[in-house]
Amino acid sequence: MWSILETFGARLSDPCLRSDDLLAGTMGDRPKSITELRAMSKAKLSSMSKNDIMEVILTDKSDTPKDTEVQSTLDKILSEITLIKTGQETINKAIEEIPKLQKQVNELRDLVNGQSAVIDQQQRFIEQLDNTSRECNLVVTGVPEDSQFLQSDGDQGKIQALAAELDIADIGSYKVFRLGSKHKDRMRPLLLKLSSPELRNRFLTNRSKLKDQDATKKVFVKKDTHPAVRNEWRRLREREKTLQAEEQARAPQDRHKIELDPKKRAILRDGEVVDSWKPSYF
Looking at the domain assignment, is residue 179 inside a domain? Predict the structure, then answer.
């Protein structure tokens, strides 16, 4: 750009230049940008005045290729800065929301714990109702179906003989029947419904005497419980065995004590609960 000025400065300082030559620069179509100025022939450039040339240069608002590249880079940087600011604002808002979310989580946790307590109470109530309905019942396993038992035939006679073995002379009125469908390879248990809880407790108290004879040592007398209760006790006993086996696989110094606590109805590892009573009644 300055080379153009120097060229025309020398031109304009030429004493041979006529005044009408100076005016010629204002005639015709004057270039409006440096690009157009560069495209002019030397003869046309020579005809322009220094003031006209400077005016074109100073008033040209078009970008040069280099300026366009710089502007593009700046625009890109500004765009990235805007994205960073937007991202930071989003992060700041998220950080501000954390205490609120934590509060909501705590409220939900309290609600769930409260509901769990209610459900636990309801399950215990259902269990109590079920136990009450079964408080006179016993389940007897190991009594043959199609053969004599203690020289007695029929389930009625077999229960009478079993009571005699347990030193119970009179069992009053009762009902007895087999549970489940008959199967040739399986001995169905007997459900015995007695007249009172006291009579049932006598059977339970004396049942250890059945181990004294070969004919009755495989007979078991136990309380009648809800299937969900039986399944849950079975699950806890199996879980206890699994955990004990895992501890046996450890080095002696690393082993923990695993035990099933019937009162707490939970499995303990060194006194800490690792599994607990969760029957499903529905």
Answer: yes
Pairwise CA distance, residues 65 & 69, whole Å: 6
> Looking at 86, 119, 152, which one is the last position of a domain?
119
Contacts 24+ apart (CB under 8 A), 227-234: 228/279, 228/280, 228/281, 229/127, 229/130, 229/279, 231/279, 231/280, 232/277, 232/278, 232/279, 232/280
pTM of the predicted structure, to 2 decimals: 0.51
pLDDT for 12 equals: 45
Same domain membership, residue 24 and residue 81: no
pLDDT digits (tens, 9 = 90+) for 232-261: 999 999 999 999 999 999 999 999 999 999
Q: In which domain, by residue range, is 203 found? A: 137-224
Count: domains in the chain: 4
How many CA atoms, within 13 angstroms, populate the side-chain half-sphere of residue 236? 21
- Tell me, yes or no, whether 235 and 215 share the same domain: no
Greater pLDDT, 19 or 131:
131
Q: Would you call 276 helix, strand, or coil by DSSP? A: strand
* Cα 239 to the center of its chain, rounded Å: 24
Cα first-last separation, the chain: 93
pLDDT at 21: 43
Distance (Å, whole) CA 178 – CA 220: 15
Higher-scoring residue by pLDDT: 154, 26: 154
